[in-house]
């Protein structure tokens, strides 16, 4: 299964430090190799086909993704600063997912 970075996600990842970029890219590579089957430490489902890729550490990064037509689409990325993922970020990712599903 291939991975497609939406431009907004590419921009977000490029804004991070080189160390974090390397970690995210490595995690995305694992996601691609395992066809989206990651453990709950690295991935979480929000239902209805929306997932988050989780980089946990001194900086907590989340990249929302979905599956569509044999492709994993990286939809939206955030630096998580609160205990729970903000609902507005989840809803924003859902809107992007709907657009991707119309492709």
Describe this structure in words.
- Strands 1-5-4-3-2 form a five-stranded mixed beta sheet.
- It has helices spanning 7-14, 18-33, 87-101, and strands spanning 2-5, 43-47, 50-55, 60-68, 71-80.
- It is 38% helix and 33% strand.
- By secondary structure, it is α+β, with helices and mostly antiparallel strands.
- InterPro entries: HigB-like (IPR009241), RelE/ParE_toxin_dom_sf (IPR035093).
- This is Addiction module toxin RelE.
- It comes from Candidatus Zambryskibacteria bacterium RIFCSPLOWO2_01_FULL_39_39.
Observed structural traits:
alpha+beta; YaeB-like fold; 103 residues; 3 helices
Give a quick precis of the structure:
It comes from Candidatus Zambryskibacteria bacterium RIFCSPLOWO2_01_FULL_39_39. By secondary structure, the protein is of the alpha+beta class. It is built from three helices and five strands; from the N terminus they run βααββββα.
Q: Secondary-structure blueprint of this entry?
A:
Layout: E1 2-5, H1 7-14, H2 18-33, E2 43-47, E3 50-55, E4 60-68, E5 71-80, H3 87-101
Parallel strand pairs: 1-5
Antiparallel strand pairs: 2-3, 3-4, 4-5
Radius of gyration: 13 Å
The CA-CA distance between the termini, in Å, is 17 Å
Largest sheet: 5 strands, mixed
Helix content: 25-40%
Number of separate structural domains: 1
> Overall 3D geometry?
globular
CATH superfamily membership: RelE-like
CATH class: Alpha Beta
Oligomer: single chain
What is the architecture at the second tier of CATH?
Answer: 2-Layer Sandwich
Number of strands: 5
Query: Count the helices. How many?
Result: 3
Helix and strand element order? EHHEEEEH
Task: Give the averaged pLDDT, no decimals.
Answer: 93
CATH topology type: YaeB-like fold
Poorly predicted residue ranges: none
- The fraction of residues assigned to DSSP E strands is 25-35%
**Main sheet: which strands, in order across?**
1-5-4-3-2
Protein name: Addiction module toxin RelE
């Amino acid at each position: 299964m291939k991975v497609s970075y939406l431009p907004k996600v590419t921009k977000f990842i490029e804004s991070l430090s080189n160390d974090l970029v390397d970690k995210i890219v490595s995690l995305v590579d694992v996601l691609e190799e395992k066809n989206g089957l990651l453990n709950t430490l690295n991935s979480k489902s929000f239902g209805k086909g929306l997932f988050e890729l989780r980089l946990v550490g001194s900086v907590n990064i989340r990249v929302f993704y979905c599956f569509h037509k044999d492709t994993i689409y990286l939809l939206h990325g955030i630096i998580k600063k609160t205990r729970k993922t903000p609902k507005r970020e989840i809803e924003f990712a859902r809107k992007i997912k709907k657009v991707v599903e119309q492709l």
